[in-house]
Amino acid sequence: MFNQSTKVGKVNGEELDYREYQQRIENMQERMRQQMPGASLDDQTQQYIREQAWDQFLREKIMQAQYEELGIEVTQAEVTDQIYGKNPHPLVLQYFADPQTGQFDRSVLQRVAEQVKQDPTGQMSQQLLAFDQMITEYQKNQKYITLVHQGIYYPKWLAQMEQQSTAENANISYVQVPYASIADSTIKVTDAELNKYIQDHKALFEVKENRRVEYVAFNALASAADSALALTEFEKLKAELDTTPDVAGFIKLNSELPYYDGYAPRNSIQVPAKDSIIDLPAGKIYGPYQDNNLLVYAKVIDRKTLPDTVKIRQILVAIQPGLSDSLAKKRADSLESVIRGGGDFAALAATFSDDPNSKQNGGEYTLTPNGYFANELQAVKDFAFEGNSGALKVVKMPIGYAVVKITEQKNFGPALKIAYLAKRVDASSTTSSEALALANDFASKNRDWKTFEKTVQEQGLDKRQQNLGAMDFVIPGLGSSREIVSWAYKADKGEISPVFTLEDKFVVAVLTSAREAGTAPLEEVRPQVEAEVKKNKKADQIIAKMKSPATIEAAASATNQPVLTVDAISFATPFIPSLGFEPRVSGAAFNKAWGTAKATAPIQGNGGVYVLKVNTYVPSGQSPLDYEQQRTAYEQNLRQLTDNQLFEALKKKSDVKDDRASFFTAN
To answer: Alpha carbon of 22 to those of 16, 52, 421, 660: distances in Å?
Structure first.
């Protein structure tokens, strides 16, 4: 009864224990490290992993409930058939392929099965069990999706209605009274009216749980004395940089900035002292200069002429279970030989490449020096810029091998290889203590929101604000800030925080908003709601002035507005020339109750109130569509929409409770 709960959340009564959640996070971290060897898992990546682990738990529990309700099962016989049957599962085709041809090879599958039997550690058995489970879950999901897809149908009557809606266009005359013709200042609204609008349109104002803080940061930046002391030590390193034969090794050991063993085009170099650096001859050093809190010396290692845009084709052969490094290399070498012998690169990429981002377009990439390209493919990028157009090569990478062909290089210009020796200039204990004293003084003298705001204005302090989710770990501009988030979710509105000590800052915050999940409070959406309520009141005034005009000329006379015309209005297109997005107007133009005989009743549109009269209906000239083509396209689009949104809909209908925030009070 007195034990603290270890449940970080639950969905539909199924609980997730903190230890299991942590294990899920660690498993995902390990997989990411395997996929990107050497990559650092920064704060943003860690936050992404935590959310992925949580979503994985939700998906498992929500979908399992669906499977049980519908009686969806996958037997061991089905799994066996997916592995050893005539039509193996796509995962089997991928993992058990011949290293020479890339084609599925049953002998590879049999060898793996024998190795499992001979493995004394049992690790391969666990991996194979996990593989079976992947296939089981995939098959369950496929059965579920198939059931949903079978419920999608496009009936003939609907096709006929859509055909009719596009067969004619309407030419109309209309009178418009713009809302802007009534000054906002003349329309008075009350909070009761605004709140009623929110309640009547709850779906438009659904919000998630949220806290908003305003904060002041006292920077513990290095003083001139701190910089002078750091510079004395830094100059000794500069002398070594000038003479060392191993620049890369020296930078790795002594610099805060990594060594990039490649060439950067002159126009892509973005450092504070760019103009002084780019014209240096090879071997010369510039500096020191300051880059944020770093002192930097820049040494030009070499200069070349390189392109600023390169097009390549690539086939990625990734190292994975069943395909070792040596086998991946042999497969890549084989593919290179086939291409040199006249093989179709695009066809080979579509069949053999493990890169889902490019295999469907023949392995093509267009590269620029500053454009994004995955870190694990950096060696490919280096070859693309430093090789010659038409060159073909097998490139070694941390994740495997790539068969790369340079198809085009253009816009050649100077490029530099530069080594940056950077030393962080940290504040001394004296400087840091002075910043802390300022923060403590501010916090002690400003214990309520009103005083906080007044002092900020009087002292001209840089106040910032941020919306915080319960599981946020990082605040832009502050970095790792989990303690601030945890405080915000325990504090009362208007409460002043203690002084938070971050890496190089001391922060004092005030909680300005504590919003729970549900419908947004008026104070957060007042401008939007006021605009809509005032528009509705203006519409009521205009309609009352129009009364019920018998003709469009009567409407024009009552409102002192001209009668205008517009042609070729389509029922299927709510955008009307000269009027903009007005779906009610396009709808009214095809209301047969009015037809061409009389004017419509006043219509409350987006930009004003309208009265219109259809002058004539004319054929649109569109050829009737084939029903089967319409049905196929409609059902295919709806299946895609379902695949994208089905799980989110199931999650919204589920009873989800997220208590993770209480277990993460610090970074």
So the answer is: 10, 12, 38, 11
Q: Hey, what are 218's tokens?
A: 């006292």
Paired tokens of 75: 């037997």
**CB-based contact 425:232 (threshold 8 Å):** no
Average pLDDT across each block of 10 residues of the chain; the chain has 667 residues. List them in order: 72 88 86 62 82 90 92 91 84 70 70 71 74 88 93 92 87 94 94 95 91 91 70 81 88 84 77 84 87 84 85 89 84 90 87 78 80 71 87 90 92 86 78 87 93 94 92 88 92 94 90 91 92 95 90 93 93 88 93 88 94 93 84 91 90 90 78
Write the burial class of residue 577 (CB in 10 Å: 0-12 exposed, 13-18 middle, 19+ buried).
exposed
Q: Is the distance from CB of 414 to CB of 282 less than 8 angstroms?
A: no
> Where do the DSSP E strands lie in 502-620?
505-515, 518-519, 564-569, 575-576, 580-581, 603-604, 608-619
- Where are the extended beta strands (E) located within 531-625? 564-569, 575-576, 580-581, 603-604, 608-619
CA distances from residue 502 to 337, 431, 505, 644 in whole angstroms, order as listed: 56, 15, 5, 40
Reading the block at residue 65, the tokens are 């409930």
Domain map of the chain by residue range?
76-150, 168-207+524-619, 210-221+444-516, 223-426
Token readout for 1 is 């009864």
Give me 246's structure tokens. 């191993």
State the CATH class of domain 223-426: alpha beta
400 pairs with which residues across the strands? Answer: 318, 397
Q: What is the pLDDT of residues 457-476, one digit of tens each?
A: 999 999 999 999 999 988 98
DSSP H or E segment with residue 305: strand 294-318
- Residues comprising the chain, all counted: 667
How far apart are the C-alpha atoms of 14 and 71, rounded to whole Å? Answer: 19
CA–CA distances in Å: residue 398 to residues 320, 332, 401: 12, 14, 8
Do the Cβ atoms of 93 and 320 come closer than 8 Å?
no
pTM beyond 0.70, yes or no: no
Q: Which residues of 615-638 are buried (b: 16+ CB within 10 A; e: fewer)?
A: eebeebeeeeeeeeebbeebeeee
Strands (DSSP E) contained in 350-399 are 364-367, 392-397
Q: What are the Cα distances from residue 67, in Å, to 130, 218, 646?
A: 20, 55, 14
